[in-house]
Design brief:
mainly alpha, DNA polymerase, domain 1, hpI Integrase, Chain A, 13 helices, globular
Length: 293
Amino acid sequence: MYKYLDNFIKYLKYQKYYSEHTIINYEHDIKEFLMFLEREGFSDLKDVEYDIIRTYLMELHEKRYNRQTVSRRLSSLRSFYNFLVRENIVSKNPFLLVSSPKKELNLPKFLYKEELEKLFQAAEDDTPLGKRNLLILEMLYATGVRVSELCNIKLSHIDFDNYNIIISGKGNKDRFVSYGAYCADALVDYLENARGKLINNKNHDYLFVNHLGDPLTPRGVRVILDKLIKKACLNSYLTPHVLRHTFATDMLNAGADLRVVQELLGHENLATTQIYTHVTRDHLKNIYTKAHP
């Protein structure tokens, strides 16, 4: 059974071009199910029927998995069996008979103006690393890009005259994002006074570099942002993704069209972007409650 999982992972990596993080999730979800099948005495993927899937879901329920996790597991297994059908390994996909549980609405967390100011103040540092860290914050907030996308930005991707950047997003799909004056100032300061001191004669075109001069990794950015979040004394539940959420929320609060925000964020599905409208409605309701006599 596991050889088919290996083939599926190769398919996701080399044909679908899924990110490493997404592939790891798929592999984990499917491997957990295969281990369950072994415990139940199954050795052939063709033998999986609705009843055994129902038993598996009961086990997840007993382990108190939340609805979002169960839904992801089912989605992974549905995709896996679609692959098996296409490869003529099995004749049908039993997971098409199973409905995913209704997802809980987890509203994205974002920063209020005062919190955002504290975060940027925490990055004020005149050293080369400090200038780099400030630009990381400015660019994440100004563009709404993902941390992984930020790390892939090269100097050749930036249109300095028009304040635009070409972003290579999920599935190797490119999009344009814009940035404003504050980000532009931080970018010029970093390039003129910091990057050359950090790069250590390394020969590459990546915008962001670490202290060794190598391209900065997503993990490195997350470590930097975690430190800045703690330094700013913000809530510990915040993640680096909070700047992307804040970008989207502030854009909608300022009256930006939902489809424009969808394009800037690189969302394929408008429903993914629409969750931010719930945030802005709550924001407006809070303002009304506080201000109305």
